[in-house]
Amino acid sequence: MARPFVLPDLGEGLTEAEIVKVLVNEGDVIQEDAPLLEVETAKAQVEIPSPVSGRVEKVHVQAGQTVRVGAVLVTFADAGDGRETPPGQQAADTMDPARTPAPESPTGVIDGRAREAPAAAPAIARTGPVPATPATRRLARELGVDLRTVPGSGSAGRVTDDDVRAAAAGGPPATRAESTPSATPAVTPQGGADRGPGAERGPAKPLASIGLEPPPLPRFEQWGPVERRPLSPLRRTIAERMTLSATLIPHVTHFDRADITDLDAVIRRNLDAAKARGVTLTLTSFLLKAAALALAAHPRFNASLDPAAGELIVKRYVHLGVAVATERGLIVPVIRDVDRKPIQELARELGALAQRVRAGKAVLDDLRGGTFTITNIGALGGTGAIPIINYPEVAILGVARAREEAVVREGRIEPRLLLPLSLTFDHRVADGADGARFASDVVRRLEHPEHLLLEL
């Protein structure tokens, strides 16, 4: 039975992706999670894995096409492993019942006490592919969880990261559901073939309008020769989103400096020990932790504004975006639940995530769901910057290069390492005093690194 695979929801206002390379041919028999396509979204070039095992019946796209969410990419002739499956046979035949979470009862309690699950719950029988994102599939492989045994708490039965973690811990499935917006399928041909990094792109197309009409450009050719270069999909979307943010959000920036002399000493003392554990300890991992803890104390900066409803949407999770410079442009991958992870785990995850992004191997879930962004340009120099907020977030923390300066402490002049910080935030959501208090909280935590190391 033919099964179409469509471009999944990209999240955060992203509605299309450009096909960079088709990695399969019609007639190929491939396994679940095998590379299917390489696409360039508005945020990064990512590899889309196959959601099922089966034979590729038809490839509906080619390199150079711009494909909207919901458009059919590939049709599979059959699901499973490429062989015919006898009628009535269920995928549960190969499942491990020991990894199956116990089913929840309708009420969850008996006589005021929690209802206990049976010691051995029957496995969940799935006859088709498991609905889960590539990131969730990777997490399941890392934790040794068979996705076919995990009940999904997401929309339309989608298995979420929390479901996988609960299954790995032997607990009940997660209950938090996630919604997936729908989109109208459409494919826009853009021409061109498989391209290397320096190859020409298809025809340029205008940036999306946000209601302002710029004045016409002068005819530059009258003063000398010019060259017109079409923007890449990533650069075009950066331009559109920065214009959107700068136009819609009244930005205000608060500047501060943190004395990170002690923090720098902690990092240097622990570099070798961390490397022995496969971790590269960096300032950014401490920035992530300090910002996450400060956001818990100042939740209005971990929010989004809904102007139409007149409401502030405060997020009770802390997923921090980290700006990563690549040859193709600035990309902001997301580290989830930063407030709940120790420094070493953050450093390990940050290193792996940045490496995937620079190699063009990030999956879509690596790039969405952020609640607050940190951009650290210290490696490139500078004394400060005013970054633009990553819409629809309401704040962003900018970090410049730390420099040793003469500081008066207790009547004595001492050399201290000072780190410039800039907090840019939405003035509709917070006032200057709120921004100053939040920045001071971040500074205080950076100046007491032992507290960050003890936080779990």
General description of the model:
The chain is an alpha+beta fold and 456 residues long. The protein has helices at residues 134-143, 161-169, 233-248, 261-276, 283-297, 343-358, 432-446, 449-454, and strands at residues 3-6, 16-22, 29-30, 35-40, 45-49, 54-59, 66-68, 72-76, 109-110, 113-114, 187-188, 251-259, 303-306, 311-314, 320-322, 324-326, 329-331, 334-335, 372-376, 395-399, 403-409, 412-426. The strands form six sheets. Strands 12, 15, 18, 19, 20, 21 and 22 form a seven-stranded mixed beta sheet that branches. Strand 21 and strand 22 form a beta hairpin. Helix 1 (134-143) runs parallel beside helix 2. The chain starts with a strand and ends with a helix.
Write the layout of secondary structure elements.
Elements: E1 3-6, E2 16-22, E3 29-30, E4 35-40, E5 45-49, E6 54-59, E7 66-68, E8 72-76, E9 109-110, E10 113-114, H1 134-143, H2 161-169, E11 187-188, H3 233-248, E12 251-259, H4 261-276, H5 283-297, E13 303-306, E14 311-314, E15 320-322, E16 324-326, E17 329-331, E18 334-335, H6 343-358, E19 372-376, E20 395-399, E21 403-409, E22 412-426, H7 432-446, H8 449-454
Parallel strand pairs: 15-19, 19-20
Antiparallel strand pairs: 1-8, 2-4, 2-7, 3-6, 4-5, 6-8, 7-11, 9-10, 12-22, 13-14, 15-18, 16-17, 20-22, 21-22
Helix pairs in contact: 1-2, 5-6, 5-7
Strand element count = 22
Structural class, from helix and strand content? alpha+beta
Please tally the helical runs, counting DSSP H or I stretches of 4 or more residues: 8
Query: Largest sheet, described in full?
Result: 7 strands, mixed
H and E string: EEEEEEEEEEHHEHEHHEEEEEEHEEEEHH
Radius of gyration from the alpha-carbon trace, in angstroms: 25 Å
* DSSP strand content: 15-25%
| Average pLDDT figure | 80
In whole angstroms, the N-to-C terminal distance is 49 Å
Uncertain parts: 80-123, 175-199
Shape: globular
Helix content: 10-25%
